[in-house]
Amino acid sequence: MRVLGLETSCDETAVAVYDGAAGLMAHRVYTQTDLHEIWGGVVPELASRDHVRRLVPMIRATLAEAGLSSSDLGGIAYTAGPGLIGALLVGAAVGRSLAYAWQLPALGVHHLEGHLLAPRLEADPPPFPYLALLVSGGHTMLVDVAGVGRYRVLGESLDDAAGEAFDKTAKLLGLPYPGGAKLARLAESGRAGVYRFPRPMLDRPGFDFSFSGLKTAALLALKAAGPEPQARADLARGFEDAIVETLAIKSSRALAATGRKVLVVAGGVGANARLRARLAEVAAAGGARTAYPRAEFCTDNAAMIALAGEARLAAGERAGLEVVARARWPLAELAAPGG
Ligand code: KG4
Ligand code: ZN
Fold it and tell me: Is the dihedral of CA 40, 45, 49, 55 positive or negative?
Protein backbone atom coordinates (compact mmCIF):
# COMPACT_ATOMS: atom_id res chain seq x y z
CA MET A 1 0.00 0.00 0.00
CA ARG A 2 1.16 3.58 -0.69
CA VAL A 3 0.65 5.81 2.34
CA LEU A 4 0.89 9.55 2.92
CA GLY A 5 2.34 10.17 6.42
CA LEU A 6 1.97 13.35 8.50
CA GLU A 7 3.88 14.23 11.68
CA THR A 8 3.03 17.27 13.84
CA SER A 9 3.42 16.00 17.43
CA CYS A 10 5.93 18.62 18.59
CA ASP A 11 8.05 21.22 16.78
CA GLU A 12 8.65 19.45 13.46
CA THR A 13 6.18 19.61 10.58
CA ALA A 14 6.82 16.57 8.40
CA VAL A 15 5.28 14.85 5.39
CA ALA A 16 6.28 11.62 3.62
CA VAL A 17 5.07 9.03 1.15
CA TYR A 18 5.97 5.41 1.89
CA ASP A 19 5.17 2.52 -0.40
CA GLY A 20 5.00 -1.01 1.04
CA ALA A 21 6.81 -2.41 -2.00
CA ALA A 22 8.96 0.48 -3.29
CA GLY A 23 9.88 1.97 0.11
CA LEU A 24 10.20 5.67 0.84
CA MET A 25 9.21 7.83 -2.16
CA ALA A 26 9.60 11.33 -0.71
CA HIS A 27 9.92 13.03 2.66
CA ARG A 28 10.19 16.56 3.99
CA VAL A 29 10.82 17.94 7.46
CA TYR A 30 10.49 21.52 8.58
CA THR A 31 11.99 22.27 12.01
CA GLN A 32 10.54 25.17 14.00
CA THR A 33 13.67 25.68 16.15
CA ASP A 34 14.03 29.35 15.14
CA LEU A 35 10.46 30.04 16.25
CA HIS A 36 11.01 28.67 19.76
CA GLU A 37 14.67 29.54 20.36
CA ILE A 38 14.05 32.96 21.93
CA TRP A 39 11.64 31.34 24.44
CA GLY A 40 14.19 28.72 25.52
CA GLY A 41 11.84 25.82 24.75
CA VAL A 42 8.88 24.75 22.62
CA VAL A 43 5.83 27.03 23.02
CA PRO A 44 2.83 24.75 22.28
CA GLU A 45 0.51 27.40 20.84
CA LEU A 46 3.21 28.75 18.51
CA ALA A 47 3.96 25.18 17.40
CA SER A 48 0.29 24.50 16.53
CA ARG A 49 -0.08 27.72 14.57
CA ASP A 50 3.05 27.04 12.55
CA HIS A 51 1.85 23.51 11.72
CA VAL A 52 -1.40 25.08 10.44
CA ARG A 53 0.62 27.43 8.23
CA ARG A 54 2.98 24.84 6.77
CA LEU A 55 1.31 21.46 6.62
CA VAL A 56 -0.91 21.75 3.52
CA PRO A 57 1.75 23.44 1.32
CA MET A 58 4.23 20.75 2.45
CA ILE A 59 1.79 17.98 1.47
CA ARG A 60 1.48 19.55 -2.01
CA ALA A 61 5.25 19.87 -2.36
CA THR A 62 5.93 16.31 -1.17
CA LEU A 63 3.38 14.77 -3.55
CA ALA A 64 4.78 16.89 -6.40
CA GLU A 65 8.34 15.77 -5.57
CA ALA A 66 7.24 12.12 -5.74
CA GLY A 67 5.31 12.81 -8.97
CA LEU A 68 2.10 11.63 -7.33
CA SER A 69 -1.46 12.85 -7.05
CA SER A 70 -4.06 11.92 -4.46
CA SER A 71 -5.38 9.13 -6.70
CA ASP A 72 -2.00 7.36 -6.43
CA LEU A 73 -2.38 6.99 -2.65
CA GLY A 74 -3.88 4.04 -0.78
CA GLY A 75 -4.18 5.61 2.65
CA ILE A 76 -3.21 8.42 5.04
CA ALA A 77 -1.44 7.99 8.39
CA TYR A 78 -0.93 10.80 10.89
CA THR A 79 0.66 10.93 14.34
CA ALA A 80 -2.24 10.77 16.82
CA GLY A 81 -0.13 10.84 20.01
CA PRO A 82 1.61 11.13 22.35
CA GLY A 83 2.65 14.78 22.06
CA LEU A 84 1.39 18.34 22.33
CA ILE A 85 -2.37 18.08 21.93
CA GLY A 86 -2.88 21.24 19.85
CA ALA A 87 -0.01 20.29 17.55
CA LEU A 88 -1.29 16.71 17.18
CA LEU A 89 -4.78 17.95 16.33
CA VAL A 90 -3.45 19.86 13.32
CA GLY A 91 -2.02 16.72 11.69
CA ALA A 92 -4.97 14.56 12.77
CA ALA A 93 -7.59 17.01 11.47
CA VAL A 94 -5.80 17.60 8.15
CA GLY A 95 -5.04 13.89 7.66
CA ARG A 96 -8.52 12.75 8.58
CA SER A 97 -10.18 15.40 6.39
CA LEU A 98 -8.00 14.74 3.33
CA ALA A 99 -8.71 11.02 3.65
CA TYR A 100 -12.43 11.76 3.73
CA ALA A 101 -12.23 14.09 0.74
CA TRP A 102 -10.03 11.69 -1.26
CA GLN A 103 -12.03 8.64 -0.14
CA LEU A 104 -9.02 6.91 1.41
CA PRO A 105 -8.67 4.94 4.65
CA ALA A 106 -7.01 6.87 7.48
CA LEU A 107 -5.16 5.83 10.63
CA GLY A 108 -3.74 7.57 13.70
CA VAL A 109 -0.20 6.31 14.46
CA HIS A 110 1.64 6.14 17.80
CA HIS A 111 4.64 8.47 17.56
CA LEU A 112 6.93 6.09 19.46
CA GLU A 113 5.98 3.17 17.23
CA GLY A 114 7.32 5.34 14.43
CA HIS A 115 10.66 5.79 16.24
CA LEU A 116 10.87 2.08 17.11
CA LEU A 117 10.32 1.06 13.47
CA ALA A 118 12.49 3.82 11.91
CA PRO A 119 15.44 1.42 11.28
CA ARG A 120 13.15 -0.36 8.78
CA LEU A 121 13.40 2.69 6.51
CA GLU A 122 16.96 1.56 5.73
CA ALA A 123 17.78 -0.88 2.92
CA ASP A 124 19.32 -3.46 5.26
CA PRO A 125 17.36 -3.13 8.53
CA PRO A 126 18.20 -5.08 11.69
CA PRO A 127 15.93 -8.13 11.93
CA PHE A 128 13.38 -8.53 14.74
CA PRO A 129 13.72 -8.99 17.65
CA TYR A 130 15.87 -6.10 18.89
CA LEU A 131 16.31 -3.91 21.93
CA ALA A 132 15.61 -0.20 21.36
CA LEU A 133 16.96 2.74 23.34
CA LEU A 134 14.84 5.78 22.58
CA VAL A 135 16.54 8.98 23.72
CA SER A 136 15.00 12.27 22.61
CA GLY A 137 13.93 15.61 24.02
CA GLY A 138 10.63 14.06 25.06
CA HIS A 139 11.40 10.41 25.83
CA THR A 140 13.94 8.10 27.43
CA MET A 141 12.94 4.46 27.13
CA LEU A 142 14.27 0.95 26.78
CA VAL A 143 11.87 -1.17 24.72
CA ASP A 144 12.08 -4.80 23.70
CA VAL A 145 10.82 -4.95 20.10
CA ALA A 146 9.71 -8.47 19.08
CA GLY A 147 7.94 -7.34 15.90
CA VAL A 148 5.60 -4.66 14.54
CA GLY A 149 3.19 -3.82 17.38
CA ARG A 150 4.93 -6.23 19.76
CA TYR A 151 6.62 -3.94 22.26
CA ARG A 152 7.56 -4.43 25.88
CA VAL A 153 8.61 -1.29 27.73
CA LEU A 154 11.44 -2.37 30.05
CA GLY A 155 12.00 1.03 31.59
CA GLU A 156 11.58 4.75 31.08
CA SER A 157 12.42 8.07 32.67
CA LEU A 158 10.39 8.85 35.77
CA ASP A 159 10.95 12.59 35.27
CA ASP A 160 13.03 14.49 32.65
CA ALA A 161 13.96 12.88 29.34
CA ALA A 162 17.70 12.65 28.60
CA GLY A 163 17.49 15.36 25.91
CA GLU A 164 15.47 17.56 28.23
CA ALA A 165 18.17 17.20 30.92
CA PHE A 166 20.84 18.11 28.33
CA ASP A 167 18.81 21.14 27.23
CA LYS A 168 18.08 22.37 30.78
CA THR A 169 21.71 22.08 31.88
CA ALA A 170 22.83 23.74 28.64
CA LYS A 171 20.48 26.61 29.49
CA LEU A 172 22.10 26.92 32.95
CA LEU A 173 25.44 27.16 31.14
CA GLY A 174 24.05 30.01 29.03
CA LEU A 175 23.87 27.99 25.80
CA PRO A 176 20.98 28.67 23.39
CA TYR A 177 18.08 26.21 22.95
CA PRO A 178 18.20 23.37 22.06
CA GLY A 179 21.52 23.10 23.86
CA GLY A 180 22.25 19.33 23.88
CA ALA A 181 24.70 19.36 20.98
CA LYS A 182 26.24 22.67 22.15
CA LEU A 183 26.82 21.25 25.63
CA ALA A 184 28.48 18.21 24.03
CA ARG A 185 30.77 20.54 22.07
CA LEU A 186 31.70 22.43 25.24
CA ALA A 187 32.38 19.10 26.98
CA GLU A 188 35.03 18.27 24.36
CA SER A 189 37.43 20.72 26.04
CA GLY A 190 36.39 19.53 29.51
CA ARG A 191 38.36 17.08 31.64
CA ALA A 192 36.83 13.81 32.77
CA GLY A 193 36.51 13.26 36.50
CA VAL A 194 36.88 16.89 37.66
CA TYR A 195 33.15 16.88 38.38
CA ARG A 196 31.57 13.59 39.30
CA PHE A 197 27.80 13.79 39.21
CA PRO A 198 25.48 11.06 40.51
CA ARG A 199 24.58 8.18 38.19
CA PRO A 200 20.85 8.16 38.96
CA MET A 201 19.08 4.83 39.58
CA LEU A 202 22.12 2.65 38.80
CA ASP A 203 22.03 1.19 42.29
CA ARG A 204 18.45 0.02 41.77
CA PRO A 205 17.18 -3.00 39.87
CA GLY A 206 15.03 -2.47 36.79
CA PHE A 207 15.50 -0.21 33.80
CA ASP A 208 13.91 3.09 34.81
CA PHE A 209 15.79 6.38 34.63
CA SER A 210 15.67 9.66 36.52
CA PHE A 211 17.52 12.76 35.33
CA SER A 212 15.99 15.70 37.18
CA GLY A 213 18.33 15.40 40.21
CA LEU A 214 21.33 15.57 37.92
CA LYS A 215 20.26 18.97 36.66
CA THR A 216 20.00 20.24 40.27
CA ALA A 217 23.48 18.89 41.01
CA ALA A 218 24.77 20.70 37.93
CA LEU A 219 23.15 23.95 39.05
CA LEU A 220 24.80 23.76 42.50
CA ALA A 221 28.18 22.92 40.97
CA LEU A 222 27.89 25.78 38.50
CA LYS A 223 27.13 28.28 41.26
CA ALA A 224 30.22 27.11 43.14
CA ALA A 225 32.43 27.10 40.02
CA GLY A 226 31.58 30.56 38.69
CA PRO A 227 32.11 31.70 35.09
CA GLU A 228 35.67 30.40 34.55
CA PRO A 229 35.70 28.78 31.03
CA GLN A 230 37.68 25.65 31.96
CA ALA A 231 35.38 25.00 34.92
CA ARG A 232 32.32 25.30 32.68
CA ALA A 233 33.82 22.85 30.19
CA ASP A 234 34.76 20.43 32.99
CA LEU A 235 31.24 20.67 34.34
CA ALA A 236 29.74 20.00 30.91
CA ARG A 237 32.01 16.96 30.60
CA GLY A 238 31.02 15.66 34.05
CA PHE A 239 27.35 16.09 33.24
CA GLU A 240 27.62 14.40 29.85
CA ASP A 241 29.56 11.50 31.35
CA ALA A 242 26.88 10.98 34.02
CA ILE A 243 24.07 10.75 31.43
CA VAL A 244 26.09 8.64 28.99
CA GLU A 245 27.20 6.20 31.71
CA THR A 246 23.65 5.82 33.06
CA LEU A 247 22.23 5.12 29.59
CA ALA A 248 25.07 2.75 28.73
CA ILE A 249 24.87 0.68 31.91
CA LYS A 250 21.08 0.33 31.82
CA SER A 251 21.27 -0.61 28.13
CA SER A 252 23.90 -3.22 28.83
CA ARG A 253 21.79 -4.71 31.63
CA ALA A 254 18.75 -4.77 29.34
CA LEU A 255 20.76 -6.53 26.60
CA ALA A 256 21.83 -9.15 29.15
CA ALA A 257 18.28 -9.57 30.52
CA THR A 258 16.67 -9.99 27.09
CA GLY A 259 19.51 -11.75 25.27
CA ARG A 260 18.96 -9.45 22.26
CA LYS A 261 21.91 -9.09 19.90
CA VAL A 262 21.05 -5.70 18.39
CA LEU A 263 20.63 -2.41 20.23
CA VAL A 264 18.76 0.10 18.05
CA VAL A 265 19.29 3.70 19.16
CA ALA A 266 16.79 6.35 18.08
CA GLY A 267 16.04 9.97 19.02
CA GLY A 268 18.10 13.15 18.84
CA VAL A 269 20.40 12.33 21.79
CA GLY A 270 21.59 9.35 19.74
CA ALA A 271 23.67 11.91 17.83
CA ASN A 272 25.92 12.28 20.89
CA ALA A 273 29.36 10.95 19.94
CA ARG A 274 30.37 9.88 23.47
CA LEU A 275 27.08 8.02 23.90
CA ARG A 276 27.61 6.22 20.59
CA ALA A 277 31.10 5.16 21.59
CA ARG A 278 30.05 3.86 25.02
CA LEU A 279 26.99 2.03 23.68
CA ALA A 280 29.19 0.33 21.08
CA GLU A 281 31.54 -0.81 23.88
CA VAL A 282 28.85 -2.20 26.18
CA ALA A 283 27.03 -3.88 23.28
CA ALA A 284 30.25 -5.55 22.09
CA ALA A 285 31.00 -6.70 25.64
CA GLY A 286 27.60 -8.44 25.62
CA GLY A 287 28.13 -10.02 22.18
CA ALA A 288 25.74 -7.54 20.57
CA ARG A 289 26.00 -4.56 18.20
CA THR A 290 24.42 -1.11 17.90
CA ALA A 291 22.31 0.05 14.94
CA TYR A 292 21.24 3.61 14.15
CA PRO A 293 18.72 4.83 11.64
CA ARG A 294 20.36 7.62 9.60
CA ALA A 295 20.25 11.02 11.37
CA GLU A 296 17.18 12.34 9.51
CA PHE A 297 15.18 9.27 10.61
CA CYS A 298 16.47 9.44 14.22
CA THR A 299 14.83 12.78 14.91
CA ASP A 300 11.14 13.48 14.31
CA ASN A 301 10.05 12.77 10.74
CA ALA A 302 7.01 11.58 8.80
CA ALA A 303 8.76 8.73 6.97
CA MET A 304 8.60 6.60 10.12
CA ILE A 305 4.91 7.50 10.60
CA ALA A 306 4.07 6.56 7.00
CA LEU A 307 5.95 3.26 7.42
CA ALA A 308 4.22 2.36 10.71
CA GLY A 309 0.86 3.45 9.25
CA GLU A 310 1.42 1.33 6.14
CA ALA A 311 2.01 -1.79 8.25
CA ARG A 312 -1.33 -1.26 10.00
CA LEU A 313 -3.42 0.09 7.11
CA ALA A 314 -2.30 -2.83 4.92
CA ALA A 315 -3.51 -5.17 7.70
CA GLY A 316 -6.96 -3.55 7.50
CA GLU A 317 -6.79 -1.15 10.47
CA ARG A 318 -8.91 1.97 10.00
CA ALA A 319 -9.69 5.10 12.00
CA GLY A 320 -13.33 6.17 12.35
CA LEU A 321 -14.57 9.45 10.92
CA GLU A 322 -13.96 11.43 14.10
CA VAL A 323 -10.67 13.31 14.63
CA VAL A 324 -8.83 11.64 17.52
CA ALA A 325 -5.54 12.74 19.13
CA ARG A 326 -4.11 11.83 22.53
CA ALA A 327 -1.52 13.81 24.50
CA ARG A 328 -0.84 10.62 26.51
CA TRP A 329 -0.96 7.19 24.94
CA PRO A 330 0.82 4.28 26.68
CA LEU A 331 2.82 2.15 24.24
CA ALA A 332 1.51 -0.93 26.07
CA GLU A 333 -1.93 -0.33 24.52
CA LEU A 334 -0.65 -1.24 21.05
CA ALA A 335 -1.19 -4.68 19.56
CA ALA A 336 0.16 -6.37 16.43
CA PRO A 337 -1.29 -4.96 13.15
CA GLY A 338 -4.89 -5.96 12.52
CA GLY A 339 -5.14 -7.22 16.13
O1 KG4 B 1 14.52 13.38 18.74
P2 KG4 B 1 14.72 14.85 18.80
O3 KG4 B 1 15.24 15.54 17.58
O4 KG4 B 1 13.38 15.56 19.07
C5 KG4 B 1 12.64 15.85 20.17
O6 KG4 B 1 12.61 15.08 21.12
O7 KG4 B 1 11.97 16.90 20.04
O8 KG4 B 1 15.68 15.12 20.04
C9 KG4 B 1 16.13 16.40 20.32
C10 KG4 B 1 16.97 16.33 21.57
C11 KG4 B 1 17.21 17.69 22.17
O12 KG4 B 1 16.98 17.61 23.55
C13 KG4 B 1 18.68 17.94 21.83
O14 KG4 B 1 19.33 18.79 22.73
C15 KG4 B 1 19.25 16.54 21.91
O16 KG4 B 1 18.25 15.74 21.29
N17 KG4 B 1 20.53 16.41 21.21
C18 KG4 B 1 21.69 16.08 21.82
C19 KG4 B 1 22.69 16.07 20.82
N20 KG4 B 1 22.09 16.38 19.64
C21 KG4 B 1 20.77 16.58 19.89
N22 KG4 B 1 21.96 15.80 23.10
C23 KG4 B 1 23.21 15.49 23.41
N24 KG4 B 1 24.23 15.46 22.53
C25 KG4 B 1 24.02 15.74 21.23
N26 KG4 B 1 25.04 15.69 20.34
ZN1 ZN C 1 10.01 11.94 18.57
Answer: positive
**At 252, which amino acid appears?**
S
- Which of 12, 136, 171, 264 has most ligand 1 atoms within 8 Å of CB, for mutation? 136
The CB of 163 under 6 Å from ligand 1? The reply is yes
Same domain, 305 and 261: no
How many Å apart are CA 266 and CA 291, to the nearest integer?
9
Q: Does the residue 180 lie in any domain?
A: yes
**Domain extent at residue 197:** 127-292
Q: How many A from CA of 192 to the centre of ligand 2?
A: 30
Q: Is the peptide bond before 82 cis (omega within 30 degrees of 0)?
A: yes
Q: pTM for the full model?
A: 0.95
Q: Given this model, what pLDDT does residue 230 score?
A: 96
Would you report the helix, strand and coil content of the chain in percent, each value rounded to 5?
Answer: 45, 20, 35
Spans of the chain, pLDDT less than 70: none
